[in-house]
């Protein structure tokens, strides 16, 4: 109430409340209590899916995000997110009025400041060629090698929770596994509502929609109250 609804009220600027376990300081006692519950609370709740232990508060957040097939897609690109909070943070990257642009000192490429670190890691890494210790394949940087291990390395198939019943390939999410199945069944599960062209992957549909139907998509965005769908789920 003080911070949001009474901006003229004097708020102490000094952080007066100290966590005795890690030394972190807080302005308000309520913030300290939340910190103690989330960070230093007893980890006595076990997740029955991944067998990791959490305190009660962090376990509730873990359940909402870690083991759900519900994915939220960005309206501007095909990226998927498990929570509305993560989606909102990502959406800011598409707002040029909030973004700060900078130039890479090595190649002079212009980009958003938030993307500079990733660009330097993927394009100008000085760690040299890196080999995957699981399969031996070489990559030009640690960034590319880690991405390979997570997504495509054949040696990690058994560790992925969702398996294709046809070829045995593993996937990190059920959605990517279901989409992969379309390569075997030759049936597409997503259909564009504007031209009825079908796609096996939602990301390909999103790219198609942005390129082929930008005006129709803008019209839908301008009338959210009408609930007009731009994607049709095909039931096979």
Automatic annotation (TrEMBL):
PROSITE patterns with a match to the protein in the record:
ZINC_FINGER_C2H2_1, ZINC_FINGER_C2H2_2
Coiled coil as a keyword of this entry, yes or no, is no
Query: A GO molecular function for this record?
Result: zinc ion binding
Q: Which residues form the C2H2-type domain?
A: 17-45, 72-99, 130-161, 162-189, 190-218
Q: Kindly indicate where the leader peptide sits in this chain.
A: none
The record's subcellular location field reads:
Nucleus
This protein's name: C2H2-type domain-containing protein
The taxonomy runs: Eukaryota, Metazoa, Ecdysozoa, Arthropoda, Hexapoda
